[in-house]
Amino acid sequence: MSPSISEDCIVIGAGVAGLAAAAALASAGRRVLLLDKGRRPGGRLASRPFEQAAFDYGAQFFTVRSPAFRQLVETLTAAGIAVPWFEHEGQTRYCLPAGMNALPRRLAENRRIACEVTATALRREQRHWRIETAGGAIYTAAAVVLTPPVPQALALVDDLDIATHQELSAIAYHRCLAILAVVAGDSAIPPPGFLRLAHEPLQTLADNRQKGLGGAATGVTILAAPDFSLAHWEMPQEETARLLLAAAAPWLGSPVTHWRYHRWRYSQPVEAFPAPCYGLPGDPPLVLAGDAFGGPRVEGAYLSGLAAANWLLTR
Ligand SMILES: Cc1cc2nc3c(=O)[nH]c(=O)nc-3n(C[C@H](O)[C@H](O)[C@H](O)COP(=O)(O)OP(=O)(O)OC[C@H]3O[C@@H](n4cnc5c(N)ncnc54)[C@H](O)[C@@H]3O)c2cc1C
């Protein structure tokens, strides 16, 4: 006897794309469960305290280009959750004084989410998907939205046809090494506290205190450029941190008292796939979403999640 189907839809990944998809499906009356391997929702919208300082160490800000995302951002700004940080090339860059992770936290309100659950395989059964997890639990759902970075998503599904597999495996991501540096006084990053650097090894520097994240000490997020990140991926972290801290020294302003290292294997897609989501043919339905489809930014992930929900609701 086949197991009873527990959910209308399971969304794997509670980053912005997964949360957007889940919200749209739930408001259409579907029973939805999100699974995420992380300790909390948010994925690459990552914030954390460290040694008296506060850090955003994934996405640093977001921009708004579409009416659908603007609608969300207007509710966030009206509630004081998001604020305009600065203008660049005619675009407002928004940040969240409680840290960028406050955006997925908000989207996660009223959602059913199981964190620290790693999906390990998706098997297509007659009327449903069977999802196996690292802890041994099995979930079943009539439909699945898959939002991990595409190489991780592909590793979960074992019966893709060769053409689909080839098309999706061409999606590549930049890597990004990040240093979370606590400095003893103020940083020397000029207002508004963000610099994009055109030369290796640095990509961006951000002063989280100027950004409004607070903390008794100043936290500077140092993001390395893609080529440097790839070339130094396997190097001992002390060595890489020394190089990045030395390159950032002119802007750190004060001695570094503590630092921490983070590696983003899938930081941002190199190019966006030319469709906002990727629905597989056949039943039961499965659709891939995320910034690889919607565009390499927070807004792109959000729109891709909405597109995936729409694909499921209208097929
Ligand atoms: C260093 C860095 C800087 C960035 N800067 C900016 C910026 O300034 N502005 C901007 O707009 N964008 C920026 N981005 C990009 C932005 O963060 C992403 O485009 C967006 O957050 C992607 O959301 P997503 O939902 O597609 O994917 P993710 O946020 O990666 O969500 C995928 C989720 O899937 C989960 N998952 C993966 N595998 C499994 C599994 N097997 N089982 C269960 N769960 C799983 C993960 O834990 C994760 O929570 C940056 C990204 C990085 C890393």
What does this structure look like?
- With 315 residues, the chain is α+β, with helices and mostly antiparallel strands.
- The chain folds into two domains: 127 residues, FAD/NAD(P)-binding domain (3-Layer(bba) Sandwich); 152 residues, Polyamine Oxidase, Chain A, domain 2, CATH 3.90.660.10.
- Helices cover 28% and strands 31% of the residues.
- The chain is built from nine helices and 17 strands.
- The strands form four sheets. Strands 1, 2, 7, 8, 9, 10, 16 and 17 form an eight-stranded mixed β-sheet that branches. A five-stranded antiparallel β-sheet has the order 12-13-14-11-15.
- Strand 3 and strand 4 form a beta hairpin.
- Helix 1 runs parallel beside helix 3 and helix 1 packs parallel to helix 9.
- The longest helix is centred in the C-terminal third of the chain and has 17 residues.
- The two termini are 28 Å apart.
- Bound molecules: flavin-adenine dinucleotide.
- Flavin-adenine dinucleotide binds next to helix 1, strand 2, strand 11, strand 15 and helix 9.
